[in-house]
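Residues pack. One example:


***
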Amino acid sequence: MGMIARFFLLVVFLSFGELYLLILAAQEISVLTTLLLCMATGILGGGLVRAQGLRAWVEIQKSLGKGQIPAVEIVSGLILVVIGTLLLTPGFITDTIAFLLLIPPLRKGASLAVIAYFKKNVKVQTFGAQSGGNPPYQRPQHPEDIVLEVEAQEVTSESR
């Protein structure tokens, strides 16, 4: 079964599960209370996502300032976008998943799992012009590593 089919089944089953739980909650605590609860989790979650998004931005800036690639921080930020989407979806299952991922250690673990998945399943190929089997040009890491080799011949009026 393809990934799109699995995603479609997940959405269908998740939607039915959310609807079932919303109906049960409305029967137990009233429709108005259920709606207010859904709105409250969205508002509370939105504020938490915003605060943690700003914190993730600061962490990305710190990593870049140290000259490090902020892979975990960037993936964590992308997971925050997914969390925001889950919180916009009315229901208790998506809200529970979103609030669990708002816990920083759980989100970091999810980020590491996503990175590991991509390292295992995604192959990166680079294309570039090469001649004579020489390795591709690599830019020096530090400006002081740049070395220019120049061959020059003096031109005088006698050599013309």
Notes: The mean pLDDT is 85.
